[in-house]
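For practice. Supply one:
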Amino acid sequence: MSNTSPPSSLSSSSESDGTPSTDTPTKPPAKRGFPWMLVLRIGTTLGALAFVLSRVDVNAVGSALVRVSPLAFLVACISTALNLVVGSVRWRILLRAYGAPHLPSLGTLARLNYIGFFYNTCLPGGVGGDVVRGVASQEAFGESGGMGAGAVVLVDRVLGLVGLLLVVAITATLFPLPGAESAHVTAIALGGVTVSALAVAAIAVGRSLAPKLPIRLAVFAKRLPRIVHWGPFGVAILLSLVTQTGVAWTGHVIVQSLAPTITLMNSLVVVPLAMATTFLPFLVGGTGAREAVFAQLYGPLGVPQADATAAGLLIWFSQISVALIGGVLPLPKKRSVEPTKA
């Protein structure tokens, strides 16, 4: 039996004479096509990883993987796990800043953050988890709050990128990397901050611009949330610096286990740039590109290419280890919310 309901006109004509219609064809269920894009992305990831490994002594990479301190790997996992909790706090603060009438509990948001991290880490593009977070948190804005929840998740992700770029810009200016044009790095980072700020501003003024936009865009724009409380929004920006510093620290403890001469200031430039590869749409977790960035930027600092490649892989392994927690967590059936205080 098909689950597809017949058109209302056909239903009414069938009911008029009391007999069911027999000449109305039943629409068969839509067949899912072969997931070519998924296969392409996984293939691209494997190809990128194979290319990186072809340019380095694989035995040396294996030796470096064994030399990394188990404690350093454990610290990286714990740092990643704690960073997700801090990110959940930022997400909740942003919901308050945008005037969400019902705030999910921190525990609920932390669970959704872990689930989103699983999808972002294990699927290409690094954005699938954000879609899950937006859909699962829409109750914060009421029954029709899908647009508001999705916009806040987008702003949350953009602020994370802003934090990453600010950390890179500040550190590259104060502690330039050998062999790197720090002025260029800083300029690119600040350019990214500017673009990100414009994106956040566009969401904030969307309702005001709605009457001046074409109808289709106006319908979309008038549903965008506005920043209601600027204080919490400022706190969210500061927390973005905290989370991205935490990301850099996560990578640093692994790299320093292989190369003790590497300083945290070095990693505050290299690791955020390398982790930005997770946004590449055809790579799973930025694999391949991340290791290439590590080798390129840590090389002038005296880190052998094999060690840098191994460090990049271990950072990914630590993320997968934490992401698996989100892979087994169920989505909340009924989210815990509380009225937002003015």
User: Anything to note?
Assistant: The two ends are 52 Å apart (CA to CA). The first helix runs from residue 8 to 16. The chain has a mean pLDDT of 85. The longest strand covers residues 102-104.
